[in-house]
Design brief:
seven-stranded mixed β-sheet, 21% strand, 13 strands
């Protein structure tokens, strides 16, 4: 309750310099989506802008922070509707004709079915990197089968931020924007049912452990910082999930509301 009083979830929340959480908080929901906005000089980038249902709140928050004309890129870490079905609606309010949709080519094959108009910037055909006008470098890493075969994450070299998409996501009715004690169990509820296997998840955690990370910004759940980063990487590295899980179907998916 203390954090709910500290932050106004109806407004954009600056979680790092020039980086804003622009999501929608539903106190009745156990599953939250986290779009982010990065403002870099006269340029802006939206990460995983969310669903059609969340569009009015997300668009309002974007417009309160930056002129939509400054948005040059929308990064889509994979193709799920909760993550990117709002893109065609956002295209209508972004007058920048040079807007690019940044994703993996295997995801772009599916994302185009949402009816997008913008050109794709396929990271696998561009050296898995994107340089903004300021020279700021965004690097992309493939995270195979976590949970899409060609899912990606974004690492911002300037501020050492990892935009981790579904990885480090969580399910909880006690949601807060920053992770608190006990977050590992909230992550487990999500990862066990959504990640393909221990082998795939553990391999990705090994890659993350080599990065210098100041903050992890997942598309679901809560933001990680400080010692929570190391704790959660280690926890997921040892988690039996997907095909390796011993949980029953009821245990895996009992959280899903009817």
């Amino acid at each position: 309750m203390e954090e709910q009083l500290k932050y106004d979830y109806l407004e954009p929340i600056e979680v790092a310099e020039g980086v804003y959480w622009i999501g929608f908080y539903d106190e009745k929901a156990a599953f939250h989506c986290n779009p982010y906005l990065l403002v870099d000089g006269d340029e802006a980038v939206v990460f995983d802008p969310g669903s059609v249902t969340d569009y009015p709140k997300v668009a309002s928050k974007i417009c309160s922070v930056v002129d939509p004309e400054r948005i040059s890129y929308m990064v889509l870490h994979h193709q799920d509707p909760d993550l990117c079905s709002a893109v065609p609606l956002l295209e209508d309010i972004i007058p920048n004709k040079q807007l690019k949709i940044v994703t993996h080519s295997r995801a772009s094959v599916l994302i185009r079915y949402y009816g997008l108009k913008s050109e794709f910037y396929d990271v696998d055909r561009n050296g898995y990197s994107l340089t903004l006008k300021s020279g700021r470098q965004l690097r992309f890493m493939v995270t195979p089968f976590c949970h899409f075969p060609a899912a990606i994450v974004t690492y911002d070299e300037k501020q050492k931020l990892l935009f981790s998409a579904d990885i480090f996501g969580a399910i909880s009715t006690d949601w807060t924007i920053f992770a608190k004690e006990g977050y590992e169990k909230q992550m487990e509820a999500f990862h066990v049912g959504y990640m393909a296997s221990h082998k795939h998840l553990s391999s990705v955690m090994e890659k993350f452990a080599q990065l210098d990370i100041e903050m992890i910004l997942p598309q679901h759940g809560s933001i990680l910082k400080g010692e929570m980063i190391t704790r959660c990487i280690e926890y997921l590295k040892n988690l039996n999930c997907g095909i390796d899980s011993s949980l029953s179907e009821k245990e895996l998916y009992g959280w899903i509301p009817k």
